[in-house]
Amino acid sequence: MIYAQVMAGGIGSRMGHTELPKQFLNLADKPIIIHTLEKFSLAPEFDKIIVSVHPQWMQYARDLFDKYLDDDRIVVIQGGAERNDTVMGAINYVEENFGLTEDDVLVMHDAVRPFISGRILKDNIEAAAKYKAVDTVIGATDTIVRAVDGEIVEIPVRDEMYQGQTPQTVNIQAFQAQYNEMSEEERLILSDSIKVMLLAGHKVGIVDGDESNIKITRPYDLRIANIIAQENLDVK
Fold first, then answer.
1. How much is the pTM?
2. Which whole number is the average pLDDT over 220-226?
3. Which segments are annotated as binding site?
4. Binding site residues for CTP, as ranges?
């Protein structure tokens, strides 16, 4: 089975003083997370769409989804303290309610990337048939430098450098097996789900992201997102 997980557990501290976590702020005509979930609702491949939310905001999220969305595949669960804790929360939900098979896949996406396209979702699902893990990336346009203690130690070949986006897609049983083998220290250091799969020795495929698949983290990002959203409305 193919499961989606929308990560909405943050409280958005980098957005500044706002009454709501950033995923619930308005973008154009509706909350950011609604824009995101609408894209997932359009994908019939998903058997379940799991939304991981901070415990203080779970009922708020349910009420919001009831208002804007009509998709009985959507379920709200509690997010974890760290990203991979949140991933494991979704995996535990799947295991407890549906059981696990060796072909089960989890497609994980940031709630605050509202311009995810159907093409990117489809490419992740298709690539997951070949790889145990898949990352969505765009090629780096600027020169990347690596620095230690304030000094440049390496300038990698730009053509080999990519910027990671989401979704990230994993085989559920493979991720679960590696996570359960990790120490608490490793779990804190390896906060990225794809790093977990690399540690397990799995090859990780990549699919093309999109420059518009931005993550809304700061007030500036929200201003840019409103411009993109308005342009999309004008096209319609």
1. 0.93
2. 94
3. 80-86
4. 80-86
